[in-house]
Structure formats: C-alpha cells, structure tokens
Amino acid sequence: MKRRYVIFLVLSISVLLFAAGTIPVSTGFMVYHSYSDYGAWDSRMFLLNLENGDLDEISKSWNIDHAMNGHISPDGTKLVFMGDDQGEPRDWDIYLWEIGSVQSPVNLTNGYNKRDEDPKFSPDGTRIVFKQAYWSSAINDFVFDLKEMNLSGEVINIITSYDRVEESMPYYTADGQRVIYASGGGSSGDIHMMNTDGTDHTALEISEGIQEYYPIVRDSATFFFTKWVSSSDHHDQVYLGYLNGDPATSVAFNIINADNSDAYPAGPDLAFYSSTRSGGEGAYDLYLGDINTGDVWSLDNLANVNSMRNELGACYSAHRLVTGTAACDLKKDPLYPNPSSSGVFYLNTDKSWLLRVVDINGMIIMENVIHGSAPIDLSDRGRGVYFFMLQSADEWHTLKAIVE
C-alpha cells in the first residue's frame, strides 16, 4: 500500500510540471534552430506560425550549413542569422532573408574572411550589431570586436576594437543607443553594457566563478540572461536582469536539475525558452513559460516542434506571418499624422479593423476593434517606433508609426 502511494505522489508531481491545454500565444510567429550537436555542423532553421501551427524548415533549400541564432526584424519582415556557405572552410557569416521569400538569403559578410556571428537588429530595423573574430598578427592573439553594419553589409560603426577578451552575443537596448553583451566565457563569463560609441561601460552581472551569458532585452528596464546555478553546479538557469543594476531574479519556470536557457519574451509575463527538463523529446526542447507562476507549455501542444535533436534559439514576433500580398482598402497616406508629436494617430479608411499595436520588442501593447478614422491614442506610451497590425475579413496590413 505504501509503495502505491509513493508512485501516485511522483506521478502527481510530474503532471504539475506542465500546464494543460494549448499554449496561450495564438498570434505571430517564431523562428528557431535544431541540431544534433553544435560541432556536427547540421543545424537547420525552422519557422512556426503560431496562428495555425504550420511548421516550415526554411533552411532546407538555402545551400547554407549550420544556420542558427535567427533574429526577426522589428516590423516582422526580415530575418538575420549566422551560418556558413556549404563546404570548406568552416567559418561563420551573417545572412539576411526576406521572410517568406523564395529567394535565398544574402550573405552580408562574405568578403570579410573573418568569423561573423551573433547578429541582432536594432529597434528601428536599420542596423545589425554582431561579433567579429579574427587573428591579429600585430598582437599575436585573437581579436573579438563588436560592430554595427547596415542592411547592405557595410560596417558603419566599431563598438570595441583590439580587445583580447571575447565579447559576444550583443543585443540592443530598447532605445537603440546601447548594447548589452557577454564578456568572457565559461566561469569568467559576465554580462556588460556600453553605448554604441564604446563609452560608458557598465558591468551588469558579475558572479565569481559562474558563467552568465546570452542576454536578451525584454523591455526598457529588464533583460533575460542565462546563468549557472553555482560555481560547482553548471546547470543553466534563466534570470531576469535589470538595466539599472538591481539584483537579478531567477524566473519561476526554472528546474534546478535541468538546463534552461535562450529565453525570448513573448508577452508581459511569458517567454519561449529551451530546456532539458524531463518529459521532453530529446536533449533541449522548446517551451513557453510564465516567469511568475512557473506554468510551462510544451510547443508540441501546438506543433511537432521538438525532436531527438536540440531545439534552441527561439525568436518571437507578434506580427502576423504574411506570405502573400493582400488587396488594399487603405487610402493614400493611410496613417496620419505620422510622425505624431501628440501620440494620437488616425487611419485614412472607412473600414473596420482589428488593431494590434506592437512595440519595438515585438510585444502587443494594445488590441481592439476600431471603426473608420477613430483615433488611436498612444500618448501615454512615450516616444519611439510602433507597428499597427490591421486585420479585416480579407486583408492584413502593417503600418509603422512614430511618436516624436
């Protein structure tokens, strides 16, 4: 009798690890990569439509090896990622792809003959920050620089130069004026921040003998990053960090005896992330977690995302995945005034629309039905770039709005 009670208790606990039902994100899309092992050079990139569960291996016809670490542009139209042209030598380049296009991605760094990695779009979508590594005979050592380029691949800014400490995984802050990044690696890996002109360097997260890496900006005040449990326990855990230097906090969906990493925001309290927690399909699987309650949903609840391989590097956009051109019912100059100094906008249309307003971090900040030229009031949201996603029975549009 006692043995049956113990078995029942264990089963009850394991059921509580996962929330029931479909995942609570039903708009937008995400990209991620899947590989058997990082050193196997067999990474493939996938696109998941969260509206209908359609899953597409977008890299299968690209002639690019090891495509990974994708980042979606703020307007949801472009994808930047790292990979390698098929064959030798084995190095890294950065590619840009128009999402949904039948054309192959463009290699932005093909002529540099250096290792170019970790690309991320700026909040306005006009710049890409990335890491560049190369051997310098002048100092007889590797150089790891953080740089910015435009969407044509032209380097427009060098943030760091001739630094023997490896600086990697850069990510813009919400205002686009600073980058947070990982400095060092292994037990000496920490999280730092600086202006894009290389000034005002700040150490955000430093723990002696503990690796901290993969920072992802969540909003204007916080960011996700990955951190070891301790110097002796190297299980990765997801933490919420603060750009003002306040102490970081562990999120509620962490499992201390599993690796949890690569968190990407998917709403005010939600994040997509990868984990080796029990009950999955393979090594790393993809989940959606609530950072406050600890509720977790497997992405297999929506599509057969997870496999015996490693699923990592999720990036989410709240924009609708558009694969064709909709008929246009909006009149000339559909949004006015734009820019707006008051934060109030009007649509030049007689139609009714479902409106979703998305900020530069891809989060939905407003959702309602508007009729004709009813005002859209963002006066309490502050300056910046926003995207208006408009849906009717037969049309989808995305408009860029600027509050001055």
Description of the molecule:
By secondary structure, this protein is mainly beta. The protein is 3% helix and 46% strand. It is built from one helix and 31 strands. The N and C termini lie far apart (70 Å). Mean pLDDT is 87; it is low at 1-17.
Give me the count of strands. 31
**Percent helix range:** under 10%
Strand order of the largest sheet: 3-2-1-24
The biggest sheet amounts to:
4 strands, antiparallel
List low-pLDDT spans: 1-17
Distance between the termini: 70 Å
What structural class results from the helix and strand content? Answer: mainly beta
Number of helices: 1
The overall pLDDT, averaged over residues, is 87
Proportion of residues in extended strands: over 45%
What would the principal axes of the Cα set say about the shape? globular
Which quaternary structure do these chains form?
single chain
Q: Work out the radius of gyration.
A: 22 Å
Overview features:
1 helix; four-stranded antiparallel beta sheet; 46% strand; mainly beta
Secondary structure topology:
Layout: H1 2-15, E1 29-35, E2 44-49, E3 55-57, E4 64-72, E5 78-85, E6 93-98, E7 106-107, E8 115-121, E9 127-136, E10 141-150, E11 155-158, E12 167-172, E13 178-183, E14 190-195, E15 202-205, E16 212-217, E17 222-228, E18 236-242, E19 249-250, E20 260-265, E21 270-275, E22 285-290, E23 296-298, E24 310-317, E25 335-336, E26 344-347, E27 352-358, E28 364-371, E29 376-377, E30 384-391, E31 396-403
Antiparallel strand pairs: 1-2, 1-24, 2-3, 4-5, 5-6, 6-7, 8-9, 9-10, 10-11, 12-13, 13-14, 14-15, 16-17, 17-18, 18-19, 20-21, 21-22, 22-23, 25-26, 26-29, 27-28, 27-30, 30-31
